[in-house]
Amino acid sequence: MIPENLKYMESHEWAKQEDDIATIGISDYAQSEIQDIVYVELPEVGTQLTQKTEFGVIESVKAAFDLYAPVSGEVIEVNESLLDTPEQVNESPYDEGWFLKIRMTDTSELDALLDADSYHAHIEAEHA
Amino acid sequence: MKKTPLYQVHKSLNAKFTEFGGWEMPIQYSSIVTEHLAVRSIVGLFDLSHMGEIEVSGQGANELVQKLSTNDVSRLSDGRVLYTLFCNEIGGIVDDLLVYRHADHHYMLVVNAANIEKDLAWMESCNDTGAEVKDMSEETALIALQGPKAIALLNPFVPERDVSEIPYFRFTAGEVAGVPTVISRTGYTGEVGFELYVPAADAERLWTALYPPVIAAGGQPVGLGARDTLRLEAGLRLYGVDMNDDTNPFEVGLGRFVKFKNRQFIGKNALFAQKRKGIAKQMIGFQMLDRAVARAGYAIYHGNERVGSVTSGAPSPSLKCSIGFASIESQAVSENEKIDVEIRGKLHPAKIVEVPFLSKGT
């Protein structure tokens, strides 16, 4: 499941644009590979993120996985419900399982990300 | 990489694979949590054919196994299994293993997959008793059936006896689904269960016989991922992670498997001296008090002082919190005291708890 209206990173994070605000999370493919998510560590509101740098960590039973920012900007909202119910990332990666909302410093950064078709091709290549 | 005789079976079940001790092994089939909980509540089927089997036989076999083992092998009678360690001259752990006594001067040793070559070389270098040491790992497959339903599931395949009558840590030679099998009431999960040693050529036949009733009962094939979380909850150490050639048995809480009395074994003098002097490190079990996950290598703090590090750590699917073993300075902390685990630069609270983390019948 790869929604058409999102932009993707090769490291499997997605970004959804609404004006200069981006909501970010991880793809359905990523959650199905990681499985059994038990903990999500996210930055605090006000943190400045830089595109393609680490901003948090997901822990599954198996291992820890770094999260990378799809865009640069300031964290304006954090999905606090993931603290108590991290399994929402497995159950609803594009809706209840979102991580952060970021006020983008440069919306053109989104152009550097993959669209749904390219991301699909990227997964196929990774899986082959 | 080496493959077990069941490799194609795992492929056809869409298993994910990982490298472990030089073997390409299934790490999971469905999900680690699903497989783990299936073993705790119903049953799981494991391919453990990567484990090493070494036969020791002939005149001098008793003496060789006894001299290599920290535990007292002379206490074994035929059909019994003993957990022991091999230690080197300075008391470091060469391997941990199971000793099966088939008969006087006839044993099967079951060793860790990554240590097969090392153990064989070690046994060879210590063999002045004339015993014959034979690596049977290639021709032996190991399938485990673990979980509360294991007895009920296995019994229909063993016409000549009731497997519930095999006590824990005993074994019998028989047939399972027509395959010649060493049926062993042992396991690495803390559950009731069996480990079934069969000729490699018959492994697929046995797996194929057991698989349908396992699935029909709600059980799962189980990979090394859940094997690791199961053994951790059951308080069982893993060689190469919780212990190695540089740790002695006391430091990792395995002192009860060192028997000094009325016997000689390799490492005895060093271990006796270490025990008298006092052991600098101890292994503790801990439980995280928040949702963070402690993993191997993370630092343990008591107050401001670093007192040790995590050796094994993972989220416990049964307990719904993270647990682990840590090697810490002796007397640094006592039970139920609070410690902290440093995770990505931040301290997270944990408490020392009793091991095993989870206690069930075996």
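The first helix of chain A runs from residue 28 to 34.
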